[in-house]
Design goal:
single chain, 550 residues, alpha/beta, Rossmann fold, UDP-N-acetylmuramoyl-L-alanine:D-glutamate ligase, 2 domains, 20 strands
């Protein structure tokens, strides 16, 4: 099993965290109460920072997550804060460390959110939360899966979540927002929309993968005293700026050939902007020379519109659309090696579909498949598994849905599951685009982008990413690393473009291309902030579905 590279910060799943806790307590002699105390202290500190004054409401479940919340309530009461504690279970149902912290709670007893009538539960919760300056969500921890409240009769847990979301106060979630699957980011029912999430020992995948990411707000990871050397190996990691250290640099002996050759195969009538942008992005990402393989009848568009450094190769076409007769021309052009970007602006004519599938099958160089190159393989994803050369797919949710013959909404609900499935079926690295762009390889490793680049939500930026990844493959980077470095570089260029233009809304794809050299050279800031705490429940994927630009 491949380990995570150093440029990924591990994101352990719930099962791994259970093993870490067990190891710390049973094998290393760390008290569970001590872990809970440190966790509660960390949350209390964040609560004080978010709301230094005013009433606090702490909503607790009966497990360890609720025990953490009870520590928060006690510590805040000890410094004079007005704290109301709400519990969804009676005291006799608490056990272990949570029960001990319930017995330590000074002041008023918790308000019990339990009744036969769901409306009564909701009324109690809303009343207790009214006027709170900040709410602490300590209902459900990392072990939660499924939906909190099933069927017509909603359970106290679901009613408590609804009450927190309706209260209007900032919510600080303990370890993970209640209702979010910590391992996957799946949200199957009601889920808390947090302003901040304080997570322990290490962040969890569900805090960075949508839709869970849109519920997490700002993520803060705190050390609760787990000793070094904890067992378990994460298969998912959060990208760090150090991925850019992998990028090759030109030296005194570099030539245009050693800097990598990229071929961009695509284009059709009305969609010639897409291959142009992919080609320009490859140039700005460091490729030594780039050839656009496009319909012969439209070759003059790129030849006259520049850039002058871009070489073109005219291919056989039918009324401006590529056909299978053009495959030989691309294969001839790739004889020197390099990488092939297939799909930008290709169109969906029958000839274009046959062209894309035959070229993907026969090409012996590294391949980046995007846009209508992906659509040509809808329902035929497993064909790509027969390729011997590196393969990278860069779909958005709609394109991945077509590849897997699923609705795009299904992809959106379980992004991690489906990107891994596609990578396994195609034996390829798959880049599922979004604010939480996921890069999965066939072994199951996944790199997660920090995102926060809203300037990318405009036409043509997908073509830019295709060109960037192709350039890095042509320069010799390993496939998984090239895809992840391309994603990071692309997102950072989006942020730099927005800074130069004065707003994300004013940036266009060509601005992102123009920003690539500065980011690649380290002149632009590469780090991203956490998720937007105001984005809960929004689409927030940072991408527009489009087939190219003219």
């Amino acid at each position: 099993m491949d380990t995570l590279p150093e440029w990924l910060t591990p994101l352990p799943d719930a099962q791994t965290m259970r093993e870490v806790d067990r190891w710390a307590i049973e094998e290393q002699g760390v008290s569970g109460l001590d872990l809970m105390e440190r966790a509660g202290a960390g949350v209390a500190s964040v609560v004080e920072r978010i709301a230094a004054d005013g009433p606090v409401a702490v909503v607790c479940g009966k497990g360890n997550n609720g025990g953490d919340g009870l520590v928060v309530a006690r510590l805040l009461r000890e410094v004079g804060r007005n704290v109301t504690v709400l519990c969804v279970a009676p005291p006799e149902e608490f056990s272990g460390d949570a029960h001990q912290n319930l017995s330590r709670l000074p002041g008023e007893a918790p308000v019990l959110l339990a009744a036969d009538d769901a409306a009564e539960i909701g009324s109690r919760g809303a009343g207790a939360l009214a006027g709170a300056a900040v709410i602490v969500d300590a209902l459900l921890g990392t072990g939660f899966r499924g939906a909190p409240g099933q069927g017509d009769r909603r359970e106290p847990m679901a009613e408590a979540i609804a009450a927190m979301n309706a209260a209007g106060a900032p919510v600080v979630s303990v370890d993970v927002p209640s209702g979010v699957d910590a391992s996957t980011g799946v949200v199957s029912g009601d889920a808390v929309c947090a302003s901040a999430t304080v997570t322990f020992h290490a962040a969890k995948p569900g805090l960075w993968i949508a839709p869970g990411k849109t519920h997490a707000g700002e993520v803060e990871t705190i050390d609760i005293g787990v000793p070094r050397g904890a067992p378990g190996q994460a298969r998912i990691g959060l990208m760090e700026s150090s991925v850019l250290d992998l990028l090759p640099r030109r030296g005194a002996r570099s030539t245009k050939f050693s800097s990598g050759h990229v071929l961009v195969a695509g284009g059709s009538r009305g969609l010639m902007g897409a291959p142009r942008m992919a080609a320009q992005a490859s140039m700005r990402a460091g490729a030594g020379y780039v050839t656009a393989c496009i319909p012969r009848s439209l070759q003059g568009i790129l030849a006259s519109g520049g850039p002058p450094e871009l070489m073109t190769r005219g291919l056989a076409d039918d009324d401006g659309g590529l056909t299978a007769d053009g495959v030989a021309g691309v294969l001839e052009g790739s004889a020197r090696g390099g990488a092939l970007a297939l799909g930008p602006g290709l169109g969906r004519s029958q000839g274009a579909v046959l062209f894309a599938r035959e070229l993907a099958r026969r090409a012996t160089v590294a391949l980046v498949l995007d846009a209508d190159g992906l659509n040509a393989h809808a329902g035929h994803l497993r064909e790509l598994a027969d390729r011997d050369a590196p393969t990278v797919l860069t779909p958005h949710a709609g394109e991945l849905g077509r590849l897997l013959e699923l609705d795009a909404s299904e992809i959106g609900r379980e992004r991690l599951r489906h990107v891994r499935a596609a990578a396994g079926q195609a034996r390829a690295t798959v880049v599922l685009k979004g604010d939480d762009t996921l890069v999965a390889d066939p072994s199951g490793r996944v790199a997660v982008s920090r995102g926060d680049s809203p300037a990318l939500a405009t036409a043509g930026t997908g073509d830019v990413l295709t060109g960037v990844i192709a350039a890095l493959l042509a320069q010799g980077l390993e496939t998984f690393a090239a895809a992840a470095a391309g994603v990071w570089l692309h997102a950072a260029a989006g942020r730099e473009a927005a800074r130069r233009q004065g707003s994300a809304e004013g940036a266009i794809a060509s601005d992102v291309i123009a920003a690539l050299p500065a980011v690649r050279g380290g002149a632009a800031e590469g780090r991203a902030r956490g998720p937007d705490p105001r984005a809960c429940g929004r689409r927030g994927d940072g991408w527009t579905e489009q087939r190219g630009t003219a």
